[in-house]
């Protein structure tokens, strides 16, 4: 399988996960649970996160969101005054309703994760990341061990744990919110976010309950290289949106990794009713749409104008975008029921 690595090296969305997948092999697993330490319950929370025991001493006062999606979650939990930094801030704009509350939070790093020196300089006591790539020492980033030695607890989104990457679900986000609620002592705020997200998913499920599922392929295009997505959170997003996935984890091509390079001929043979593709900016979206329309003019997806673009950031593990993109796709697939 050929693995894509775009020249601009954005650490968002599908391509970032493909590029760094092998780096996650030894770094994390699938279990993410939280419990209070029996000996020191009032002062510490003990988490099992990506096959690591994480001890959070007290309520963090200098947290860092390692991606805007994680920063957004911390802001929505009312933790702006406990943020010491927001990383990769140029990778994705914060939603307008929370952006103002982050204006005083130092920005560390642009599109890529911050350097080791820049992250350690803000003296974090809690670092919340979408994947373990952000801690790759070979890339010049602070490793988990280095952060722990500096007094920071490190938490990775459930869907960003390698073993969970193949079987991840949209609702993995709820485990993260429950854990954050415990860590920061904001259980009511976390429960409210979970409840609102569950309601949104339930509304979509009710709307599409009686539709005839359309066959949908999810792809990623970089230049003229075409990849299919057949497992993980991306697969679950399509499932919840009422799609009959063309590609799935039961297929050999996705038995070991959630993405695989395919030929245009193989996609054309599937004749999907719709194509969902992720894009990291407007230029990439336009280029992908141009490639798909010119390469596959006879596909039902192209003829019926069912080319559905989603933001790469919204399929990144552990984001509220995982919830909203389910509705976005469902509305495009089945406009008559919304």
Supply database-style keywords.
alpha/beta, six-stranded mixed beta sheet, disordered N terminus, globular, five-stranded parallel beta sheet
How is the topology of this model organized?
Blueprint: H1 13-20, E1 32-36, E2 44-49, E3 52-57, E4 63-65, H2 68-76, E5 83-87, H3 96-99, E6 107-108, H4 116-121, E7 126-129, H5 144-149, E8 153-156, H6 162-165, H7 172-183, H8 187-207, E9 215-222, E10 225-229, H9 232-240, E11 244-245, E12 259-261, H10 264-270, E13 274-279, H11 282-295, H12 300-303, E14 307-311, H13 321-333
Helix pairs in contact: 7-8, 8-13, 9-13
InterPro entries: ABC_Transporter_SBP, ABC_transptr_periplasmic_BD
Protein name: Periplasmic binding protein
Family: Belongs to the bacterial solute-binding protein 8 family.
3D architecture notes:
Belongs to the bacterial solute-binding protein 8 family. This protein has two domains: 13-202, Rossmann fold (3-Layer(aba) Sandwich), CATH 3.40.50.1980; 211-337, Nitrogenase molybdenum iron protein domain (Rossmann fold, 3-Layer(aba) Sandwich). The radius of gyration is 20 Å and the shape is globular. The chain contains 13 helices and 14 strands. The longest helix has 21 residues, at 187-207. Strands 9, 10, 11, 12, 13 and 14 form a six-stranded mixed sheet that branches. The protein has a five-stranded parallel sheet with strand order 6-5-4-7-8. The protein is of the alpha/beta class. Helix 3 (96-99) links the parallel strand 5 (83-87) and strand 6. Mean pLDDT is 88; it is low at 1-41. Helix 7 (172-183) runs antiparallel to helix 8 (187-207), helix 8 (187-207) packs parallel to helix 13 and helix 9 packs across helix 13 (321-333).
